[in-house]
Amino acid sequence: MTPQSSSSRRRPLRARHTAVAGLAVLTAALSACSGGSGSSGDDRAAEKPKISVNLSGQQAKAGGPVTVKLATGKLKEVTVTDDKGTKLPGKVAANGTTWTSQRTVAPGTAYRVQAGTDQGGTAKSTFRTAAPDKVNKVTLAPGKGTTVGVAQPLSITFDHAVRNKAEVEKNLKVTTSNGTTGSWGWIKNYDGKDRVDWRPKEYWKSGTKVKLDAKLNGIDSGGDDWFVRDYATHFTVGRNQVVKVNLDSKTAALQRDGKTVKSVPMSAGTPGGEKASWGGTSVLMSKEGTINMRSETVGLSGSNSYDKMVDDSMRLTWSGMYAHAAPWNAAYFGNTNHSSGCIGMSDANADWLYGQAQIGDPFEVTGSGSKGIPDPGNGYGEWNLSWSDWQAKSALK
After folding, report:
1. What is the pTM of this model?
2. How far apart are CA 231 and CA 118, in angstroms?
């Protein structure tokens, strides 16, 4: 084999990617060459910026920020873009040598890093984060673009348990059109899933516009359950109205702006057992119209069994308390609480209330004979807690 001369072994410098102490190190030439043999030392440094990135390869660890460091000189601009075209926000440090992303990288995602120096040098790098073991998804309420009543909270229910509650909560941003005071609170939904609600200190003011930005992409909820996207919703608060249910007078009154619009006779749950109605404040969760109600779904059997098609059904709790039409109970309206736990009215009165009520309207149940107040996760029962007790449920207290 003929040995090569020293001149033939020389190769032009080119961009290359090597791993050094866990860092991706880049050396890149200027995108457009300038100067020849007479270039100054500063020019030559600009042509070969040495930039390191803390993440590299195809199995980079998710959940942390991207850090870009320049060996000499100052960084001018850095962009980190994922495979969907979304850029990670970030800032260059005061000394100009380091850029750090303000959001963490998500699992199972490819990223492209581009960096430029104040001398015109450029460098590029790519990496991909390891795929997640499990993905945590959420269900948001209320729906996007809806109009709701004054007691409707922002509610997020998680598919999997959330152990890093504080980390999740600090990435949830609520914006209101009038600076409404409120707090997040962590509770168990009726089905046992983790849930976090944002409740105002007092009922919303009519006309308030509310927006949620849940910047969860790249957050580990705990136990390698990752969020892989952001979430958002927005809604408007509608009419200021409350339904006052009095178990003693056996009436249900719709109040709007503090004035009674109409009061109707009703019959609530039979006192003294499981058939009693819930007291306290519940929130209208859904208007379900005509549905089939069966006693076994609420744990009643034997002489308490029923199987009925029920009109104008308005759900108040997950455990099965509704306000609805109950013509079979007409003899008891206004004089006796004699239902299986629901608030029953005549066809005409139930139809009227159904047409007036909004999702998110509070039903305030007072008087004797209730079976207590529902848990916060049994519907939207958080209004039965004092403001200080609700604030104590925040993970950031």
Report:
1. 0.84
2. 37
